[in-house]
Design brief:
heterodimer, A: 274 residues, mainly alpha, Helix Hairpins, Cytochrome Bc1 Complex, Chain D, domain 2, elongated, B: 265 residues, Cytochrome Bc1 Complex, Chain C, 68% helix, 1% strand
Chain lengths: 274, 265
C-alpha cells in the first residue's frame, strides 16, 4: 500500500509523460539547435581564453599576461620564496582552512565542512521530498541557495586576495619576535629566527600571528616550552622529519648543519608569549 | 518512361539505404538513434536546459585535447616541465591544445556548477530524478579531483606547491587521511612516484569513471525526460485547472487543493 505522497508523485510523472507525448516537441531539431549553439559558444569561449592567455603573456612564457603566465618556474622543492596556491576553484577550500586554527579546529575546515557539504548535496533529494518546484514557494531552497552562493563567493574572493607572508616581509618581524619571546640577547637564536623567516617555514607553520597556519602544520610560538626538547632535538628534527615519524614535513638537510643548529636554538628559545 | 525512372530511383535508394538497414538489422542502433533524436521533450524547454550538454561539450574538449597532450607529455620530474615547454613552444598548435585543456578545465568546473544550480532552482532533482542528481554530485566531485590531479602535471612551482599543500591537507583528515596522503604521494616526498600516480589517476581512472557515470546520467535523462521550467504556464505534468483563487497563504500545503496547478513532475 503506497502512501498518498508516493501515489501523487507517480500520478504526476504519468501526467508528465502524457503531456510530453501529446504536446511536446521533438528533440531534433528544436532542442538540439539550442544545444548545438550553446556547445559552439562553449568551445569558442575556451579558445578565446586560450588566445588571450597565450598572446598577453610576455617573455618566455613565465611573465604573466591577463590570465597568468604560460608556466611558472620549474618545480623547486628547495625554493623559499614561493607562495603555494591552488587553482581558483579550490580557493574556497584554501581559505576555509585559514579560518580555522591548528590544531583544535582545523579538522573542521579540512574534512568537517567539506564532508558535510558533500553529504548534504548527495542527500538533497531525500531531504526535500515536497513536490513543489516553483522557487517562490520553496523558501528554504531560496535561503539555502543564497547562503551557498554568498559563502562560496566570499571564500573564493578571500582566497584569491589572501596575501601570504613572503620571506622578506617576515624578516622584518624578527626583532619583535625576539622581544616578545625574550631571546633578544641570544644572537644565535636571532640568527635562527632570520633563517626561519626566510626559508619558507612560515608557508605552512605560523608563529606569533604570522604565517599560514594551514596545511596541518602546527603553530610554533611555544614549541620550545615542551619538556626535554633541546636545540639539538629541533635541529635533527628539521633536518629529517621522517626520522621522527613525520612524513608530511619535507626534509631540510640542505640548509646545512650550522644553519640547522641556529634554527634549533631559535625554536628552543621560543617558550611562548609571557 | 516516368515509371522506369522511379523504379530506378527506388533501386538507388535501396542501395543507399542498404548499409543502414544492415546495421539496424544487426544492432538496432539506427532505431536507437532515431528514438534519441525524435523523442519528445516538453515544449517549454529553453536555454537553461542547454547547460547539461554544454558541460558535456566541455568534458569532450578535455578528453580530446587530453589525448593529444598525452602524446607529448612525459610524466617524470626531470622531463615533465621540459615536455610542457616543448608542447607550448615547439609543437604545431601545441599551445592551443594545452591552453584549451587548461582553460577548458575551468570552463568545465564552472559549467558543472551552473548546471547544478539550474537543476536545483528548477527543483529538477525531485522524484523520479533523485538518482540522476546523485550521479551528478559524484561527477562534480570527480571533476574537482581531475582538477587537483591535473594541476601537478606541468611540474612548475605553482603546480608543485599547490600539490604539497593539497596532500598535506589530505593528511590531516582523521583515520584515512594519512593513508590517502601516503597513497597519493607514493613515497617520502612528492617526486616521480607522485607524478606517475597523479598522471594515471588523471588520464585513466578518473576519466574512465566519469565516462561511465556520464553515460548513466544521459541514459537517465533520456529515460525520465527533462522537467519543464517550474514557472511555465504549460509545464508538462502540471495539474490543469481553473486559475487558483488568490490569497492562498500556506507555503506548504500537502492537501489536494494545494496541488492544484503545481508543476510537480
Amino acid at each position: 500500500m503506497a502512501s498518498r505522497r508516493v501515489e501523487e508523485r507517480r500520478e504526476g510523472f504519468q501526467r508528465y509523460k502524457r503531456d510530453v507525448k501529446e504536446r511536446g516537441k521533438p528533440f531534433f531539431p528544436y532542442a538540439m539547435f539550442h544545444d548545438t549553439v550553446m556547445s559552439l559558444v562553449v568551445v569558442a569561449v575556451i579558445i578565446a581564453l586560450t588566445c588571450i592567455w597565450k598572446y598577453t603573456a610576455g617573455g618566455d612564457g613565465t611573465e604573466p599576461g591577463w590570465l597568468g603566465p604560460l608556466y611558472a618556474e620549474k618545480a623547486d622543492p628547495a625554493t623559499t620564496n614561493f607562495v603555494p596556491r591552488p587553482d581558483w576553484y579550490f580557493y574556497f577550500l584554501f581559505y576555509l582552512l585559514r579560518i580555522f586554527k591548528w590544531p583544535e579546529s582545523v579538522i573542521l575546515g579540512t574534512v568537517g565542512i567539506p564532508t558535510i557539504a558533500l553529504m548534504l548535496l548527495l542527500a538533497l533529494p531525500f531531504i526535500d521530498l515536497r513536490r513543489e518546484r516553483r522557487l517562490l514557494r520553496r523558501p528554504v531552497a531560496i535561503v539555502a541557495s543564497i547562503l551557498v552562493v554568498l559563502s562560496m563567493g566570499v571564500l573564493t574572493y578571500k582566497g584569491a586576495t589572501a596575501r601570504e607572508s613572503l620571506g622578506s616581509a617576515v624578516l622584518a618581524a624578527v626583532p619583535s619576535w625576539a622581544k616578545k619571546q625574550g631571546f633578544e640577547g641570544n644572537r644565535q637564536a636571532v640568527a635562527g629566527a632570520e633563517i626561519f623567516a626566510q626559508v619558507g617555514c612560515i608557508s605552512c607553520h605560523s608563529y606569533i600571528n604570522t604565517g599560514g597556519g594551514f596545511a596541518g602544520a602546527p603553530d610554533l610560538t611555544d614549541i620550545g616550552s615542551k619538556q626535554g626538547k633541546t636545540a639539538k632535538y629541533f635541529a635533527d628534527y628539521v633536518k629529517n622529519p621522517s626520522a621522527f615519524g613525520n612524513n608530511q614535513m619535507p626534509r631540510y638537510d640542505r640548509l646545512g648543519d650550522e644553519n640547522l643548529r641556529r634554527l634549533g636554538l631559535f625554536l628552543a628559545a621560543s617558550k611562548g608569549l609571557k | 518512361m516516368a515509371r522506369a525512372r522511379s523504379a530506378r530511383r527506388e533501386q538507388i535508394e535501396k542501395l543507399a539505404l542498404y548499409p543502414i538497414d544492415w546495421l539496424e538489422e544487426r544492432s538496432g542502433l539506427v532505431g536507437g538513434l532515431k528514438y534519441f533524436l525524435l523523442r519528445k521533450v516538453p515544449r517549454d524547454t529553453n536555454w537553461f536546459h542547454t547547460l547539461g550538454s554544454a558541460t558535456l561539450t566541455a568534458f569532450l574538449v578535455q578528453a580530446v585535447t587530453g589525448v593529444f597532450l598525452a602524446m607529448f607529455y612525459k610524466p617524470d620530474p626531470d622531463k615533465a616541465y621540459e615536455s610542457i615547454q616543448h608542447i607550448t613552444n615547439d609543437v604545431t598548435l601545441g599551445w592551443l591544445v594545452r591552453g584549451m585543456h587548461r582553460w577548458g578545465a575551468s570552463v568545465f568546473i564552472i559549467l558543472m556548477f551552473f548546471h547544478m544550480a539550474r537543476v536545483f532552482l528548477f527543483g529538477a532533482y525531485k522524484y523520479p530524478r533523485e538518482l540522476n542528481w546523485i550521479i551528478g554530485v559524484l561527477l562534480l566531485a570527480l571533476g574537482m579531483f581531475e582538477g587537483f590531479t591535473g594541476y601537478l602535471l606541468p611540474w612548475d612551482n605553482t603546480a608543485y606547491w599547490a600539490t604539497v599543500v593539497g596532500i598535506n591537507i589530505n593528511g590531516t583528515a582523521p583515520f584515512l587521511g594519512p593513508f590517502i596522503a601516503q597513497i597519493l604521494t607514493g613515497g617520502a616526498e612528492i617526486g616521480s612516484e607522485t607524478i606517475s600516480r597523479f598522471y594515471a589517476l588523471h588520464m585513466l581512472a578518473l576519466p574512465g569513471a566519469m565516462f561511465a557515470l556520464i553515460g548513466l546520467h544521459l541514459y537517465l535523462v533520456i529515460r525520465l525526460g527533462v522537467s519543464s521550467p517550474p514557472w511555465s504556464a504549460e509545464a508538462a505534468g502540471a495539474e490543469r485547472a481553473e486559475p487558483e483563487p488568490t490569497g492562498r497563504a500556506g507555503l506548504v500545503s500537502p492537501g489536494p487543493r494545494g496541488a492544484v496547478g503545481r508543476p510537480d513532475a
